[in-house]
Amino acid sequence: MEGLATGFAYRDGALMAEGVPLERIAAEVGTPVYVYAANAMRARYRALAEAFEGQDALVCYAVKANGNLAVLRLFADLGAGADAVSGGEVTRALRAGVPPERIVYAGVAKTDDEIRLALEAGILQFNAESVAEVERLSAVARGMGRMAPVALRVNPDVSAGGHDKISTGRRGDKFGIAIEEAPAVFRHADALPGVRCRGVHLHVGSQIQDAAPLAAAYAKGVDLFRGLRAAGHGLDTLDLGGGIGVRYRDEAPFDLEGLAAVVARLTEGLGCRLLFEPGRFLVAEAGVLLSKVIFVKETDGRRFLVLDAGMQTLVRPAMYGAWHGVRPVVERPDAGLLPTDVVGPICESSDVFGRDRMLPPLDRDDLVVLETAGAYGAVMASAYNSRVGVAEVLVDGDRFAVIRPPLSIEAQMAQERMPAWLEAGLEAGLGATA
């Protein structure tokens, strides 16, 4: 079986999250539930910060990876900023105590209201993705009597990322401005009222295991930055994005020190602030999805482990074909391993977490975890099939807290509204059957 996720280990045969037994969390909170190890997150942040020590670098945590307020607060306390891709994420970062001057607002489709929100807050910069967006930033900022600090996102035509759907820096992807067109766009942007061009931004993908494509993209970004400076543009930030990969199965740990050395060499003498936007790297391995076995089904020579978690709880396997290690909460070292299909309760054939996983015999009500689930898990969850919304728990040493309670069906329906003409018919029907 795969290695344990960071922050989780067996103790006396029971799987622990730091100092808390997962069986206790299941008993007190219920399942399915995401469990995060706070000290594992802190360790990841510190490893990244230490690798870039001596460089003028700000880590802006990518909120989209895990936007829980408690997680955002944890990183804010460590000195991190936030990389937001919606007005909602800007609001979350502010609510969690991230100083506005550490917030970067990216994304391809910012509305006027979202732009106003960020301008009023006084964020560090907007990462603009198109000429149309820069012009809209100019119009909104001018109307408010504000100046919008802008970095232009360029597309360096570098292919990277662990899956086609999370590679963002290739020619033809929807993100950014073609790097060859950037000088003309900068000239246009600098001439617009209400806009201050302050930087270059690039991001080429997610779950990148090899530093080579990052180095290639960074080199293009630095060359562009130097050329723009030489042409008279007053730039002071270079945003190198995120994308650093993690271990889901048997991937080698990412070489942070090697990447930091490359960045130091490329940016020597540049005299600007470097921004980094890691998300998955900081939280993925610090989280698991804790689930309970509902049934064990054997048919047509196959063995199915049916969990109370499904694709509505963790969509990555269905969406990306992603691998998540599966492990019993109670260790069974002497039990023989059986090929097992691990599936969820959703009425979709794609609701499969893994096929032919080698697992010990498990029965109804046994607990399992899906590993490396701290990123793009809870944030992408839904209530599909009207399932109870998934809970989240943060463990810090020997204490834990529910940081998002499960959303009951009653609570979900309370968010919905019945039109008056249908409500009247419903009440009449209920009266007729009383």
* Average predicted local confidence, pLDDT: 92
CATH topology of the largest domain: TIM Barrel
**Helix share bin:** 25-40%
Q: Unreliable stretches, pLDDT < 50, 5 or more residues?
A: 162-171
Structural class call reads alpha/beta
Largest pleated sheet: 9 strands, mixed
Rg (CA only)? 24 Å
- Any idea what the CATH architecture of the largest domain is? Alpha-Beta Barrel
The CATH H-level homologous superfamily of the largest domain: Alanine racemase
Q: What portion of residues belong to β-strands?
A: 15-25%
Sum up the overall morphology in one term. globular
Structure summary, number of beta strands: 21
> What is the number of domains?
2
Instruction: Give the distance, in angstroms, between the N- and C-terminal Cα atoms.
Output: 58 Å
CATH level-1 class of the largest domain: Alpha Beta
Number of helices: 13
Throw out a few tags for this protein:
single chain; 434 residues; alpha/beta; Lyase, Ornithine Decarboxylase, Chain A, domain 1; TIM Barrel; 9-stranded mixed β-sheet; 8-stranded parallel β-barrel; 13 helices; 31% helix
Structure description:
It is a single chain. The protein is an alpha/beta fold and 434 residues long. The chain has 2 domains: 8-36 and 284-413, Lyase, Ornithine Decarboxylase, Chain A, domain 1 (Beta Barrel); 38-281, Alanine racemase (TIM Barrel). Helix content is 31%, strand content 25%. The protein has helices spanning 22-29, 38-51, 69-77, 87-95, 112-121, 131-144, 182-190, 211-230, 256-266, 280-283, 316-320, 409-414, 420-433, and strands at 8-11, 14-17, 20-21, 33-37, 57-62, 81-84, 103-105, 125-128, 148-155, 177-178, 195-201, 237-239, 273-276, 287-299, 302-307, 326-328, 338-343, 352-359, 367-370, 391-396, 399-404. The N and C termini lie far apart (58 Å).
